[in-house]
Specification:
The chain has four helices and seven strands; from the N terminus they run αβααββββββα. The chain has 142 residues and is of the alpha+beta class. The protein has a domain of 97 residues: OB fold (Dihydrolipoamide Acetyltransferase, E2P). It has a five-stranded mixed β-barrel. A hairpin with a 2-residue loop joins β4 and β5. It is elongated.
């Protein structure tokens, strides 16, 4: 049994309205754009005031801590010769260090990346552990 034309039109209108609601109610925060520092700086106006994830290396000698606090830092991240100033307003992870990799979540505001969320890895620590594991396996073969 086929549905009457009026019923099909009604279902179409309801589906279109539901889809329209979902599109208009999306805040855009569900999936964050992920990019490296050089990509962000390649089109600053496009990304200004949008929440993003930015990946780079902490520039040597750039970390400045606000006196009397543990969670207010200024530093620079770099990638492919491009450098981005960062203002971080949370307690950094234990692995945060100069020349270490970081991924920051935040917004570019007036040329400064404002962030309160960071993941950091300390490459020397992991390389050291991998080297010890490799040495532990030497001589155990058959």
């Amino acid at each position: 049994m086929a549905l009457p034309v009026a019923t099909k039109v009604g279902i179409g209108v309801i589906l279109a309205a539901a889809l329209g609601y979902l599109v208009l109610s999306d805040t855009g925060e569900g999936v964050l754009e992920y990019m490296y520092v050089d990509q962000l700086l390649g089109d600053v106006q496009k990304y200004e005031n949008r929440t993003l994830k930015v990946h780079g290396l902490v520039a040597a000698g750039s970390i400045q801590r606000k006196k009397g606090t543990t969670g207010d830092l200024k530093f620079r991240v770099e990638y492919n010769g491009k450098t981005l100033p960062v203002h971080y307003t949370n307690i950094p992870p234990d692995t945060f260090q100069e020349e270490g990799e970081v991924v920051l979540t935040g917004r570019l505001v007036d040329g400064v990346f404002e962030s309160d969320e960071m993941s950091a890895k300390c490459p020397s620590k992991y390389e050291e552990e991998e080297g010890k594991a490799a040495l532990a396996g030497v001589g155990k073969g058959g």
